[in-house]
Amino acid sequence: MNFNATLIGQSITFIFFVWFCMKFVWPPIMNALETRKKQIADGLAAADRGKHELELAAKKAGDNMRDAKAQAAEVIAQAEKRAAQIIEEAKMAAKEEGDRQLAAAQANIAQETNRARESLREQVAGLAVAGAEKILRREVNAQTHADLLGQLKAEL
Amino acid sequence: MATEYASSGEYIKHHLQNLTYGQHADGTWGFAHGAAEAKAMGFWAINVDSMAFAIGLGVLFLFLFRVAAKKATAGVPSGLQNFVEWIVEFIDGSVRGSFSHQNALVAPLALTVFMWVFLMNLMDLFPVDWLPFVASMSGLPHLKVVPSTDPNVTFGMSLSIFFLVLFYSVKMKGAGGFFSELAFQPFPKFLFPVNLLLEGVGLIAKPISLALRLFGNMYAGEMIFILIALMFGGSWVLAVFGGALQWAWAVFHILIITLQAFIFMTLTIVYLDMAHAEHH
């Protein structure tokens, strides 16, 4: 165990190596490690955020679905109501129309009756006139008159 | 292999001698042949093998990590980047666990300490004769391939860390604060010489224990590999037994080299944490 200048040489070498390591080796590697650590942390945070967003979206989708269902039910109810209303209206309209047509038909019938009665009256009057003419032409006796009149009566 | 040497003692000695370059007693410069010559060179000699392997392994570590750092992206990491990030995150976790202050130096320091010490220790798993054999073919008298079995290397690191500890102690607490930490506790103020002695020893013990623990463990491990390698010079039964032993010890050693690197790093962090901490 004899000491010599190797001691100094080794010290200088050691100091140089430590300096080199501190300057050119340690920082880039630590830098890469830190960057990767940060990237991983960011990635995990992003994943967490994504999961949270997914949950929110699922919740929102559920809400939307429920709303849509409610709306659909409302629409259906309204439509049914409306359909019932339309049917009711149609019924009413049909009834009115029927009434109207019935009234028209009755008016028509009354008119026809009147007309028939009118023409009948004219014919009766004509007959009466004709009878009167016959009576006047023959100049017959009361008996004959009575016959004629009887005939007239029968005809009326 | 031990047959090349006059005795097992010489074989062991040969393996424990660094390749030292310095000035010989006669004034010429060159490699030392043997421990005595190396000792005679005094302080101004250098263990070429320790330095070469230490620098080579440090450059290998920094090169690999630099390549990964350059290509580092926040995306899916490639194989090398994955491996590097695994180690960096392990170091970062250790630093966060033991160091409770803000200092950009500590984590890169810990990474360098861990990887470098680990790689230097890893050289222990090379069979003890391979690289020295190659070296002797190319004319080098000695070669010790495990830099952390050279106390110069471990003390070089622990003393650098010790100066960092002193620097941050003074920077964080001020010279007065640091002194009062050493002098006015654990006993009351009037006993400050005793306090100073106790705390001073505690302070000095940090770098020494740090360096000696690593050196001692690796030296002992290396020694056992050398002793096992001696068996290969005996009968074939002994050689086979030695092979099995070497394999077993190498497997166990994987644990030791990692553990020692980890302990060195952790203590570095803890000492620096203590340097930053205010004492109450």
Brief summary of the model shown:
By secondary structure, chain A is mainly α. Chain A has helices at 6-138, 142-155.
Compile the SSE list and pairings.
The complex is a heterodimer of chains A (156) and B (280).
Chain A: H1 6-138, H2 142-155
Helix pairs in contact in A: 1-2
Chain B: H1 8-15, E1 20-23, E2 29-31, H2 35-40, E3 46-47, H3 48-71, H4 79-98, H5 106-122, H6 130-137, H7 151-183, H8 192-231, H9 236-276
Antiparallel strand pairs in B: 1-2, 1-3
Give the end-to-end Cα distance of chain A, rounded to a whole number of Å.
175 Å
Largest interface: A-B, 32 and 52 residues
Order of helices and strands of chain A: HH
What is the chain-wise order of helices and strands of chain B? HEEHEHHHHHHH
- Count the domains of chain B: 1
Output the structural class of chain A. mainly alpha
Low-confidence sequence ranges of chain B: none
Spatial extent as radius of gyration of chain A: 61 Å
Q: Overall pLDDT of chain B, averaged?
A: 88
Approximate helicity band of chain B: over 70%
Q: Can you tell me the number of structural domains of chain A?
A: 1
Low-confidence stretches of chain A: none
> Class by helix and strand content of chain B?
mainly alpha
Relative strand content of chain B: under 5%
How would you characterize the largest beta sheet of chain A? none
Number of E-state strands of chain B: 3
End-to-end separation of chain B:
60 Å
Describe the structure.
The complex is a heterodimer of chains A (156) and B (280). With 156 residues, chain A is mainly alpha-helical. Chain A has one domain (32-155). Helix content of chain A is 94%, strand content 0%. Chain A is built from two helices and no strands. In chain A, helix 1 (6-138) runs antiparallel to helix 2 (142-155). Chain A starts with 5 loop residues before the first helix and ends with a helix. The model of chain A has no long low-confidence stretch (mean pLDDT 89). The mean pLDDT of chain B is 88. In chain B, helix 1 packs across helix 8, helix 4 packs across helix 5 (106-122) and helix 7 packs antiparallel against helix 8. Chain B has a three-stranded antiparallel sheet with strand order 2-1-3. Chain B has helices spanning 8-15, 35-40, 48-71, 79-98, 106-122, 130-137, 151-183, 192-231, 236-276; strands at residues 20-23, 29-31, 46-47. Chain B starts with 7 loop residues before the first helix and ends with a helix. The longest helix of chain B is centred in the C-terminal third of the chain and has 41 residues, at 236-276. Chain B contains nine helices and three strands. With 280 residues, chain B is mainly alpha-helical. Chain B has one domain. Chain A binds chain B through residues 1-11, 13-15, 17-18, 20-22, 24-33, 35-36, 39, and chain B through 18, 20, 22, 38-39, 41-47, 50-51, 54-55, 58, 61-62, 65-66, 68-70, 72-75, 77, 81, 84-85, 88-89, 92, 104-105, 107-109, 111-112, 116, 150-153, 155-157, 159-160.
